[in-house]
Amino acid sequence: MEEMIPRKKEIEEVKLMPPLVWAYIGDCVYELYIRMQLVNHTKLKPHKLHLESIKYVKAKAQAEILASIYDDLTEEEQDIVRRGRNAENHHLPKNAEATDYMYSTAFEALIGYLYLSKQDSRLQEILEKCYTAI
Questions:
Q1: Annotated active-site positions, please?
Q2: How far is CA 43 from its chain centroid?
Q3: What percentage of the chain carries pLDDT values higher than 70?
Q4: Beta-carbon neighbour count of residue 14 at 10 Å?
Q5: Degrees (nearest 5) of the Cα angle 51, 55, 61?
Q6: Does residue 5 sit within a domain?
């Protein structure tokens, strides 16, 4: 992944960030990845692009993706997922089950952590698995 936006935190700082900060960034990174995949591989118009992207970025889909890749994660990545899942989040969307939302937050935390810690090749590998999992 080409770095257009500088990531200035050292790994030690990233490890100390709250899991919801990882999820905050992970949400953006994952959604951008999905949107670019759709733009690169389809000829859909903007409204259809949006509808198609929802299939990948909604909480239930992210929870299912995480379940499908979990066994392939390293011990450290599984720990990141655990921390993301257990993060106390006071916001629950009305259109998602609480369990799905917890696991989608865990998934986004993993994506954000890998991005912020500049583990780009591993991030790319996981994102590719996610796209084919749906």
A1: 27
A2: 24
A3: 94
A4: 20
A5: 155
A6: no
**How far is the CA of 8 from the CAs of 5, 14, 17, 77, in angstroms?**
9, 10, 13, 21
Task: Give CA angle at 28 (30, 104), nearest 5°.
Answer: 60
Q: How many residues does the chain have?
A: 134
Domain count, the chain: 1
Domain that residue 120 falls in: 11-133
* AA identity, residue 47: H
Q: Give residue 46's pLDDT.
A: 94
pTM of structure = 0.93
In a domain, residue 46? The reply is yes
83, amino acid identity: R
83, 109 in Cβ contact below 8 A? Answer: yes
6 occurs within a structural domain: no
